[in-house]
Queue: 2 jobs
Job 1
Amino acid sequence: MCGIVAVIGSREAAPLLLEGLRQLEYRGYDSAGLATIQEVEKDGLGLLSCKRAQGKLNNLSSLVEKFGSPGHLGIGHTRWATHGKPEERNAHPQRDISGEIAVVQNGIIENHRFLRKELEAEGVSFSSETDTEVIPHLIGRELKRMQSDGGVISGSLLLTAVQNVTKELTGAYALAVVWARTPEALVVARRQAPLLIGLGEGEFLCASDTPALAGFTRTILPMEDGEVALLTPLGIELYNAEGKRQQRSPSLLTGIDHVVDKRNFRHFMLKEIHEQPDTAELWVARHLPAGLPPTSPVALPFDESFYQGIEQIQILACGTSRHAGMVGAYLLEQFAGIPTSVFYASEFRYSAPPLAPNTLTIGVTQSGETADTLAALAMEFDRRKANGDPAFASRQLGITNRVESSLARQVPNILDIGAGIEVGVAATKTFLGQLLAFYALALDFAARKKSRSSDEIISLSNELRLVPNYLRSLIHRHDQLSEQLAHRFTDTQDVIFLGRGINYPIALEGALKLKEISYIHAEGYPAGEMKHGPIALIDPRVPVISIAMPGMVFEKVLSNAQEAKARDAQLIGVAPEGPATDIFDALLPLPEVSELISPLLSVVPMQLLSYHIAAHRGLDIDQPRNLAKSVTVE
Ligand code: G6P
């Protein structure tokens, strides 16, 4: 989703902005722009240069190359359209009528219609359909008012104008503002949308996400909700929402946070699928080291108080993370014996169930920035506090791949899936990491609550230790098989994915992956439900992909698959090889593992088949149309 980069320092800003924006490309966008300010007179008016282009970042860099964009101060933006089509005039930066103030914004200004009407009534004419455009006009109006009251042109004046204007805005936003009259001042602000300041050598930067900063500095100062900052070549002035000056020490970025290259893979998604054995290996090394006793089968970073009295669990998440949450709920209920519910975060925040005591709330978000998940967690925190829940402050857990994210600052307990940055919009290795996090929690709770015998705990732990090797052989084989199978999908318009029990969420994930990157309509269904509706869709043109793993529902799933076959569906099985599975027209074979760990493997053919179908269609796999990696608006 929209990405912001801003810089002030001694180097030319435009190349730094473009490099920063490139690191944010993976978030998803449909246009891009930047504005720089060149100082033309000492302590005087600067020249604002603004370049914007629809489409990929290369279009913007060509413009900058051709026409230049001089100055040591600048702001840049990748836009994911919310208000107004992805056209040049709606791209950011947006400017005021004087053309001296430029703003980039990530978020949604919810009262923009009201503000727009008010400004139009005062004679302001708008040049875009964006919600953002009200901001430069409001800042322009405020600066004029302050100057006529005796305010002197300075960075501080711009800061005050932004502080005053943000009070008029409702909604969530992160923004960066420059003014041609203050070529040595950059003002940034955030409310419920991420923004981090980077302290470089002789320069300060600001960005929506760490990859845009990591190439320049590893010293960062994440901005807190409601803060506004003035950045000048001399330093940073940080203020809270009440206008009180804040002093905080910066922190150091750890790990590889900048977007790494594709190595020899055609796409980041394929590379990330191939990285899954490493994700699993690292997880085993961290959480399942050999020699742990069955009474304490996993190494997790929580103290005793975290576990005390938990009687039920609720999981809040969106998209792929919700599917991981569904597998998690199955494990926590069926293995650890804890009643668990899963909610779409976007639904939960407006229709949460009645409060029940002793409930742990788990937010699952790979990016740690999904607006709905963060807001749902905040809402749950507030209502438990208001209700006098004695454990309100400690009863939240976040499962994320980004330990420096807003989530990690918001919730008291974090489980880091440690998968390394994921660039492909379609989540793959982070999904696996989220699943593994839930296996760890289920083992831990089962041991503490004694809901499973030592033998069962040891057996699941030992099986999990084998997962990295299973994945290693599986991915190599399925890469080839899926590539061959993908040719059958050239004219396919609909696909049905079936699974049951612990593999039902994997059917949902298979359908989601296919929709996201190949734009083929797909439905994931619990296999037993097929005859209550989707069966009407079946004809020889509709492939049915059925996950059938030996276990409690094996025979049932095979019978459901037969029902599809009887109606001439092309039947593709994700199942072990053997006489029972020769009903399938094509087989994506899995090793015979226990049903309980099978989602860790059955998801691989889902990912690779979607990948190869999309690749065969020549689509933009890493940045599929309309999607964003990090969904920072509601
Ligand atoms: C977007 C992405 C999905 C992701 C979802 C939730 O829709 O395209 O891949 O599953 O957001 O993201 P999160 O960062 O919260 O896991």
Note: The first helix runs from residue 13 to 24.
Job 2
Amino acid sequence: MRKAFIAGNWKMNMTAASGAALIKELAPLVADASCDVALCVPAILIPAMTEAAKGTNIKIGAENIHWAASGAYTGEISAEMLKEYGVEYAIIGHSERRQYFGETDETVNKRTLTALANGITPIVCVGELLEEREAGVTEKVLDKQLEIGLKDVEDVSKIVIAYEPVWAIGTGKTATDEQAQETIAYIRKKLGELFCPKCAEKVVIQYGGSMNAKNCKGLMAQPDIDGGLIGGASLKLDFATIVNYDK
Ligand code: PEP
């Protein structure tokens, strides 16, 4: 039985003061959640948000992780740095990293293997562009992202996948319940082929893309959707409504 997992992605938003204030307000509202809850925050906010979330069920995650242990990688964050603050999750290969910062399936793979080797759960983002969906190549795109991104992973159950159709991120255009279910079921089938069907059944797969307080119930009711990666709505109290989707 997979445990649902709702994670926020703050992207390049919030400050130490506004972030801590939000966590203080969110904490009592999500205290009885039946799902796992995390907020992935900008690296500079990790120490303060870890402090703010102490004693709550909100885990603090990172928005990226570098593959090298240390060295000349200006602007990057290592696993050791994240572990120092007890970080348990790292988003990897978000479409914004792919689009604006040259992230590739190969670098996604390196980051994923490094997170796993350090006991940090990677939230590996996959998803197609609008033109790819319209051209009918969504499955082909996902195949490549999964084949390369998850190469040499030993235990796929230690990974969280976030299926995020790029056309739905930050656009207010959510995939329909049926579109999201159909594509996530495809991802699970593909994981079954790459690893084993039983292993694939254990993988938590989130939907991401304009998920909000209104559409979360319908998405979460789908049999293959185990959670959400939430951008915009994680910057406000709506995040608590999503976390409490089953209440
Ligand atoms: C995201 O950043 O992963 C995301 C899904 O953003 P939004 O919820 O704002 O579409």
Note: The mean pLDDT is 97.
